[in-house]
Amino acid sequence: MPPSPLERIMQSERLPTIPAVAVRVIELVQRPDVSLDELGAMIERDPALAARVLRMANSGFYGRPRSISRVRDAVLILGLRTVKTLALGFTLVTDLRARQGAGFDHTWLWQRSLYAGVVARGVAVRAGLRTADEAFLGGLFHLLGVIALESALGDDYRALASEAGRDVDLLRAREFERFGVDHSRVGASLAERWNLPAALVDAIRHAADPDAAPLETAQLVMCVHAGCAGADVILGEHPGERLGQLRTACQRLGLPPEAAEELVADGLASGAALGATLDIPSSSLEPEEVLARANEALLRLTIESERENAALQAEREQLIQQASTDVLTGVANRRHFHEFLEEHFRLAARYGTPLSLFLVDLDHFKQLNDTYGHLVGDEVLRGVAQRMRAHLRDADLLARFGGEEFVVVLPSTPLEGAVQSAERVRAALAARPIEAAGQEIPVTASFGVSAYRADALMTPEWLIKEADLALYEAKRAGRNCVRAAGDEVSSRF
Q1: Mind listing the pLDDT tens digit for each residue in 57-96?
Q2: CA angle 382, 385, 389 (to 5 degrees)
Q3: What is the pLDDT of residue 492?
Q4: Chain center to CA of 206
Q5: Could you tell me whether strands 445-451 and 482-484 are parallel, antiparallel, or unpaired per DSSP bridges?
Q6: Are 344 and 409 in contact (CB under 8 A)?
Q7: Inter-residue contact 230 to 246 (CB < 8 Å)
């Protein structure tokens, strides 16, 4: 079986290797019983690492500045857990930055990593989690796969990354499309190869998709996801969208959404302090400027989203209207009529409320079509529908039943009321001609009325059948009249 895209990448001899100092740090990180003396002694063996730890201990990033000159004191003040995290972060960043080549925006990559780390740590601290330092490392190395892909693929990858710009989501999509794997999976695989802590591997793999993270590291991954969103608020091309994502992540971690702005502001300040220690340039933007830009963009997105939702709702309503409306007359179609009748029939059967309907058949309509033509006949049907609707209640449903037949459903209406309504409509149609194609065409109609009864045999279909029988009686009686279904009608069947 040929190797997978990920396996081919991981077989590259150009992938970054972990420095010897980092190997020793990882060994100590993995030991829960490591002592201050052991960790301090290991750090002191690397002058560059020792200098960075001392600089960090004397900065305001982890507390008030102090005058500390011994690594052991720095470990004591910062805490064993924090120093283990910092030592690993400093070692890897120093080595990876020394290996970077030309033709790629490494400054942006490390700035985004830095801000993702400090915002992720801030989220974890505010949420009261014990994984604040791990969250910092997760943010700091969430783009490890980008470095690995650039090392393994060279100019091919640099060209792709240049096209994606600072849009990490687009970069990930282009990576998968071009190489069959994205930097999240590559970075996680490289972290596993380096024997980094499993929680850190999960943070790198799932930072872009926190819902896919294992349950045991889900909160840590969500912090890193929030950190990435915060970094893009500061540096990205879509600050409004990312600010919205950061607010959502805060809510999922039990924080108020307003904390997002404070996290960004704190991240800018912390990034400046930590960036100096890691030799990563920090942003020159002021928090007020960053947040104003992000909030303006978010407001614009919200307005656009509301407009889009309104347009979609209008389109949805239009489609529903089209699906339930007769194209020719504009009244309800037969399908909607049956749905409406069945719903109100259930209500009548359950609560005993009255329900009636009447069928309407235009008299001698075939003769009208033969005389004036079908186009005029269509105009007459539209005119009849309009006039009928004007003499019905808003609660009544007027539908085209087929051809020249209409049907009206009257909720909460007994038989007597339905007969009166049908008579009003009949009189309105007969009162004056329908104007069609510049002509005045007299129109009359016959009406058959039926009403719901509490009868075991009563169904919506039977209600229509009784109205149809009554309509037949109206036609036999000479047309242009109203007839109601009675006991003598139903007893025939």
Answers
A1: 776 665 555 577 777 777 777 776 677 677 777 777 776 7
A2: 145
A3: 34
A4: 19
A5: parallel
A6: yes
A7: yes
